[in-house]
Acyl-CoA synthetase (AMP-forming)/AMP-acid ligase II (Cupriavidus necator), 517 residues
Amino acid sequence: MLDLGRTFLQSVERSPHAPAIVDGDLLLTYEQWLARIRGVAAGLLDLGLQPGDRVLAILQNRWEMATLHWACQFAGLVIVPLNWRAKPDELDYCVRDAGVKALVFEPVSADAVLDSPAAQEIPCIALDGAPGGSLSFDTLLRATPRRDSTQAEAGDISLMLYTSGTTGKPKGVPRRHRQERAAALAHVAQNLYRRGERTLGVMPLYHTMGVRSLLAMALVDGLFVCVRRWSASQALQAIAGHRVSCLYLVPTLYHDLLAEPGFDSNDVRTVTKLGFAGAAMNDGLLTRLEHAFRPELFVNHYGSSEVYTFSVDQHAARKPGSAGRAGLNTRLRVARLDAASPDELAAPGEEGQIIADLRGDEAFEGYWNRDDANAKSLRDGWYFTGDIGYLDADGDLFVTGRVDDMIISGGENISPADIESVLSLHPAVDEVAVAGVPDARWGQKVVAFVKPRGCVDAGALDDYCRGSDLVNFKRPRDYVFVADIPKSPVGKILRRKLSAGEYSALSSLPHSDPIKE
């Protein structure tokens, strides 16, 4: 299999003058971009870095970040992308844990770099004159490219992603060139991408979704439109201005697009393919997107940093909530919740833990320096995801939550997804998240946190649930109206914050007493 550097050369050789990347007023063709990538690759090696060394990037989605990612692939270096909002202690931990040999940053992340003792011990390459840099990114760009500009092989490590670390220290997920290329090829195939597709590069390049978009566009000689910070209005302008043909976003960003006052006046007709991942999409949003875009293809991707694609449903709106079947490079199962072995399977319709075959072409091989995490998640050649779901009578997968999100109320196991799907269809509900809140009688009670878009009260929502097919023990016992649903930087609902009371309740809408039986 080709490594990623040679993969990029394929696109340059096929389509040297095709537009490759846009960032504001900057537009580079594949041939022009290659020249900058080769310069940065040479500049990194001129610093004394050796193939296999780790380079940490704490940057927004800008052309320099995308260039650095590709330069590391050419130079045989391992890129370690980190959230540009990372705090000094997070940065310090990752620099030391990964054994980082150089760091690239910009003004927005300068404070974290300056306050990280570990970062101060290595070369810090600054963009835009950020304070604390030992040299500038422009210095790398001016380096003389090397004759043999591809230093990596398919079996070498390409990048190391860090998981979000919501329940402890983040875990490093090292991934090889061949795993990255296989995942990108599958992404192209599963989204039916054609040559010359154009996508909005908004999902962060420290996240699997952002990396997917970046690599997939190169495979089809496509255009990557950089979006440094999310703005629904600017995103709509970029879609129209660059004739974007495919979107791959988390549900939250789709919600923002539809809610933007200028949505109807912007031309989104060029978008023919919608894809989403990172979180479940409720039934209401699915319906609204189907009506607004009328896409040729509407794909639900379900995966993780460890195994990029577990499953895919290419007809997301046809069976709302379905994550479909196993992806091209994957096998999956639903094991019983108490399973000690991957062979102890849940029955059809029974919730269990979703597991994936580690022999798949996209699968990682284990966490970086974390034997404890490997022992918990890797069993007999299978990856235990920590996600809960079930297979329906047709064999389609439904993801219903996380093991850690399971609500245990009155001895019943309750997943939030079913409740959220019902409430999302109420016309006065903008967003909804369900979480378990400690309760003296029930252990936990089911509480729905609702961001409204109309006049509604708890009684009306309870009546709505009673009139649905939601079983009674899953019905929320309380409704809290909130200004916003707390989410991670990539749009995942942070239920632990809701359970802990970390939210802003709306004072102008009723917050009722618990619903009576």
User: Anything to note?
Assistant: Residues 510-514 have pLDDT under 50 and may be disordered. The first strand starts at residue 19 and ends at 23.
